[in-house]
Amino acid sequence: MTHSDMNYWFTADTHFGHKNIIKFTDRPFHSAEEMDEALIANWNARVAPDDEVYHLGDFALNSPARCRRIIARLNGKIHLIRGNHDKTADACADQFVWIKDYHELQIPDSDAHRGTRHLMLLHYAMRVWNGSHHGTYHLFGHSHGTLEDDPTSRSIDVGVDVHGFAPISYAEVKTLLEAKSWVSPLSQS
């Protein structure tokens, strides 16, 4: 694993400040404040200040002032892929590197074709995406771990409900996706 593998992080569905998400997804917290503090601690235990973080939507459901205070406490340079609950994040757009509806990311990876891994980032899961037939990874959130995983698809839910209420590294994403039984349709005749 090279240094470049270690400084990319992915997460989704933090829902900072959203009390009802605790009930909706059976999160092990008694209050939104307790959840927020756990999410912040878990995030900062993994992510360094200069790391790149790609949050795949539903960042916060609280006031813009509270959202700004949370962002200020989080390590990393945060890029936000807009989810269906990101009005608060939009009001704090200047706190993010950028906010987009989707993003196609390229990460240096000596194991990937031509030394670059392509990732399709979207809040929602897709069955096919740009480059899916070439093995491009697709990362998503939104489903809070309720969408059945397809063992033949190079896609993964990176939401906090699936990954111990913390972001996951590119190396972890790669390990999970490369363990799947994906076969390029281009190699079949």
TrEMBL record:
<dbReference type="InterPro" id="IPR020549">
    <property type="entry name" value="YbeY_CS"/>
</dbReference>
<dbReference type="InterPro" id="IPR024654">
    <property type="entry name" value="Calcineurin-like_PHP_lpxH"/>
</dbReference>
<dbReference type="InterPro" id="IPR029052">
    <property type="entry name" value="Metallo-depent_PP-like"/>
</dbReference>
<comment type="similarity">
    <text>Belongs to the metallophosphoesterase superfamily. YfcE family.</text>
</comment>
<keyword id="KW-0862">Zinc</keyword>
<protein>
    <submittedName>
        <fullName>Calcineurin-like phosphoesterase superfamily protein</fullName>
    </submittedName>
</protein>
<keyword id="KW-0479">Metal-binding</keyword>
<feature type="domain" description="Calcineurin-like phosphoesterase">
    <location>
        <begin position="10"/>
        <end position="145"/>
    </location>
</feature>
<dbReference type="Pfam" id="PF12850">
    <property type="entry name" value="Metallophos_2"/>
</dbReference>
<dbReference type="GO" id="GO:0046872">
    <property type="term" value="F:metal ion binding"/>
</dbReference>
